[in-house]
Amino acid sequence: MSQSGSGTATAAREATGLTYQRCRWCGTASFRRLLCPVCQSSDMRTESSEGHGVVVRTTVVHRYTEYARNESLVRFPEGFMFRCRIIGTPPQLVWPGARVRPASGADLSTGEVVLETVDKVEHDPWR
Ligand SMILES: [Zn+2]
Q1: Tell me, what CATH number does 69's domain have?
Q2: Distance of alpha carbon 77 from alpha carbon 80, whole angstroms
Q3: Number of domains in the chain
Q4: N or C: which end of the chain has fewer CB atoms below 10 A?
């Protein structure tokens, strides 16, 4: 039960605050899981994600209410996917392939993961 290696080399990557778990046995990355999704090991170590993900699938929740919000499945460069809320773009205009990053001010350690789009929507109403 020793926690080693924290505190020195990780500082440069702490900016996003997004961390994930990597299995010590098979190397599979996962997010907010107690067991490895591949080998069921509970021997996971926490690593910092680069934080920039890509939208794989996107849906609008409560589409016809004023509380419409986006819910997207996002793939992160470390290899895990997670369902997140996307802001910074109208919910129905988030597109698969959009690059996203942790929203500024979002607390990623608990609760809902909120990301914002990196690129602006190219929305041309006149076409
Ligand atoms: Zn594993």
Answers
A1: 2.40.50
A2: 8
A3: 2
A4: N
